[in-house]
Amino acid sequence: MITFSIIPKSQLEGATRIDAEYYQPEYLDMFNKINNFKVNNVGNICDILRGNTPKEYGDFEIPVIRSGDLSYGFINDYENLLKAKNENIFFLKNGDVIISSIGFGSIGKVNIFFGENDKLATVAEVSVLRNCKINPYFVWGFLRSKFGQFQINREITGATGQLHLNTGNIANIIIPIVKNKVGQEIENFYKDAERLYQKSKELYAQAENLLLEELGLKDSTKFLGYISDNDLPLLYNSARLFVYPSLYEGFGLPPLEAMACGIPVITSNNSSLPEIVSGAGIMVDPYDSDALAQAMSEVLTNKRQYQTMVENGLKKAKEFSWKNTADKTIGIYQELLKKREK
Under CATH, which number does the domain 232-324 receive? Predict the structure, then answer.
């Protein structure tokens, strides 16, 4: 079945794109629904800024939110964020709407900063909507809705192979102009939800402590929270065993880092992890606590198996060096050039 759209000539005047994807019928249907309201472009409603990428990360004081961090429901928790030196810093202001503008999987994610000014920084891969003429919480809510997300997806470009959402594209997004009451209701909803989230964290911490007390592990268990890149090597090399029962991984860098430090790895048998640790680590069902405990016991009590896993892990880690990645990438380009010459 052929699907097509009929576009008025007036709509194409001054257009920067005339490809079929840009004028999909579902996009046009969404536009018709939005245009039933009084609308304006984001560029006319808010100042659109870009963050700055800090010069140095490490054991510093300023938390930095990057594009991937916008996937979190709330961004007011700083313990899991990288910390940066106070140079080349772009600080967020209370009420800033922030949009991930680059990166596969995170591009187009929208969040809002609700907190004290000049405490949280962001990077160049993040766009910031500031000084909005309508309630920023409504802007946040609309851009996260299907009506906002379809426009964001429509404006993403990838001419150079990397996906981009430029400030000029963000400015083109249209947004309904609603009564102040609507924006205030959304703001109240967000702040109530954030308070409940913080309360749930407190209750979760209390539940953790009760469980550790019940198991007799309170004095021998520590929850370290965020660990800086500078401290990770020391932590890995101080460990006897690295246990990583992840439910899903895009790549699986932590097990690879542990093997590179000579630490035996026990991890999950799902997603990309078998490719990372196969032949070097032990893989178990992350939902099977008995199998996980058995694997840990075997490794820690069998010296020969322990040493074999250390040696195989070091060999496996070498397969994933950046040099190998570069060599394989060059090989692909060379193969393509040969095909082109033929």
Answer: 3.40.50.2000
